[in-house]
Amino acid sequence: MQTLMPQGRSFLKMHGLGNDFVVLDARSRPLALSPDSVRRIGDRHRGVGFDQLVVLLPPRQAGADVFMALYNNDGSEAGACGNATRCVARLLMTESGGSRAVIETVSGLLTAEAAAGGLYSVDMGPARLEARDIPLAQGTDSLRLPLAIGGLEAPCGVGMGNPHAVFFVTDAETADVAGLGPQVEHHPLFPQKTNVEFAQILAPDRIRMRVWERGTGITQACGTGACATLVAAARRGLTGRAAEVILDGGSLHIHWRDDNHVLMTGPASLAFAGTLDPLLLP
Fold first, then answer.
1. Is-contact 281 37, C-beta < 8 A?
2. Whether pLDDT at 4 is above 60
3. Contact 163/211 with Cβ under 8 angstroms?
4. pLDDT level of residue 8 (50, 70, 90 thresholds)
5. For domain 9-119+267-280, which CATH number applies: 3.10.20.310, 3.40.1180.10, 3.10.310.10, 3.30.565.10?
6. Given 81, 87, 156, 227, which residue is catalytic?
């Protein structure tokens, strides 16, 4: 029987707590992607569908095992993604047979280690709290940003390799994520747009959080968003420096260490492997 698709490109479909990715390996076989091709692959009806596209490339820095390029569903480039980092860490550790991996991103090097129970821990780097580092369009105290919308006000700004605005709400389940998320994402205060978190404090070590991701929309989970939320809550004195962050797709454990680095621990899942139709690519 003749093969229906002899010239396609192999991919993996992975997810971290439902935050889903298409992973392409371009370490030995170069791949040119345009924003249009990213959007075609990301179309959940005519392509494969994803929250982010992950492309594995040869590392650029000494000590890194791979360079991880990230693209949002709208074709724009992303700077960091905690859930994707755990997925790539799983692939690298399976490939090497080791328990540690160093993943290079446009935001820096991320070190991942295998954890108990089949989980993966990633040092997501330092929390960025200065306006210029988040970044914000104006110099202001990131603890309480001068922003009010839809009955919510004064979110906490945090940079985790990408910008975040964390609102604290009384009930995360009823928060208008779909309505307010895109408005905050495109607010002039955020020159690179922003991810938006709606967080409810359940206990000093438990937070319920829902998220609107820039360039994608509502997702089941956001690793950098969970990190930003814990940092924001600790800065406000609402929690300690470690907590379980409960997202729509499950829970992550986040620890904001005394050296300002944020450690994220959670699962990484493989859904299936497949082959892309060449028509989806450039």
1. yes
2. no
3. no
4. confident
5. 3.10.310.10
6. 81
